[in-house]
Write a structure and sequence with these properties.
alpha+beta; 7 helices; about 270 residues; Alpha-Beta Plaits
């Protein structure tokens, strides 16, 4: 099921839950009215019987009607309870569907739309608490070549491997968003750019074992930045880092130790 269809399905379930809640309230109101009617009939029956020397057929009829009202009231309350259980089930299903729609099936990273929303929330929180916040833009090197030479299943496995390595060196609450076929954005609160760059350099060290590498650019949150500002700036830094690395003749797949700094300029890669 596509991302859009998941969202439509979740919205439909929320609407169904609201409808069930409305029906439950209506059943409860009907039940209350039936109980009140039954009480009035019982009282009228008592009044008739208190002044009668013989069996009052009207009082008997009132008691029978009161009994029917109470049975109807119980049925209404049972239906109201069923409606509320159904509403809770619909809401739980909607929540699950939204969660599924928020994550990329291949890598389990956030999808672009959902991830950008989470990034915006993180940025708002960081500004409110005056907390450092760093964004990294990551590009998986040579994914196209892998797809072309070994097939898309191999490319899919490469992406899963890269994201798994990134998760190993990030914290459980750090954000990972897949923004393109081979591109990811990561958000890391309460760290410096140097600390974040070190983490991604360690990712390259791990990936070097399988002759894989990533290019990354790192930037920090500024006062007036939006999520789009941070992503664009980190992307620019990543591109510059990649071009400089190629100019220096550095291949991280065969020498991942070069991920930390350039041997010719002593330049720290991927920071702005």
């Amino acid at each position: 099921m596509t991302h859009a269809r998941w969202l439509v399905s979740a919205d439909d379930r929320d609407l169904a839950a609201e409808d069930r809640d409305r029906r439950a309230v209506a059943h409860d109101s009907t039940s209350d009215a039936r109980d009140e009617g039954a009480s009035l009939r019982d009282q009228r029956s008592l009044d008739r019987e208190s002044g009668a020397s013989e069996v009052d057929l009207g009082a008997a009829a009132d008691r029978a009607a009161a009994l029917r009202d109470r049975r109807g009231s119980r049925a209404d309350r049972i239906q109201a309870a069923d409606d509320r259980v159904g509403a809770a089930s619909d809401r739980a299903s909607a929540k699950l569907e939204r969660r599924i729609s928020s994550f990329d099936e291949l890598t389990s990273a956030y999808r672009r739309d959902a991830g950008t929303l989470e990034l915006t929330r993180d940025i708002t929180r960081a500004k409110r608490t005056n907390q450092p916040y760093v964004v990294a833009f990551v590009d998986v090197d040579d994914l196209k070549e892998t797809n072309d030479s070994l097939g898309h299943p191999a490319g899919d496995e490469l992406l899963r491997h890269v994201v798994s390595s990134i998760r190993t060196h990030l914290r459980s609450y750090d954000l990972i968003v897949r923004v393109g076929g081979d591109e990811f954005v990561c958000g890391l609160p309460d760290l410096t750019m140097a600390e974040v760059a070190e983490r991604f350099s360690l990712v390259n060290t791990d990936l070097g074992v399988s002759r894989t590498a990533i290019s990354f650019g790192v930037t920090e949150l500024k006062a007036h930045d939006t999520a789009e500002d941070l992503i664009a700036r980190a992307d620019e830094v990543m591109y510059e880092e990649r071009q400089n690395r190629r100019s220096d003749g550095i291949d991280l797949r065969s020498n991942p130790d070069h991920a930390r700094s350039s041997p010719t300029t002593n330049r720290t890669f991927g920071l702005q």
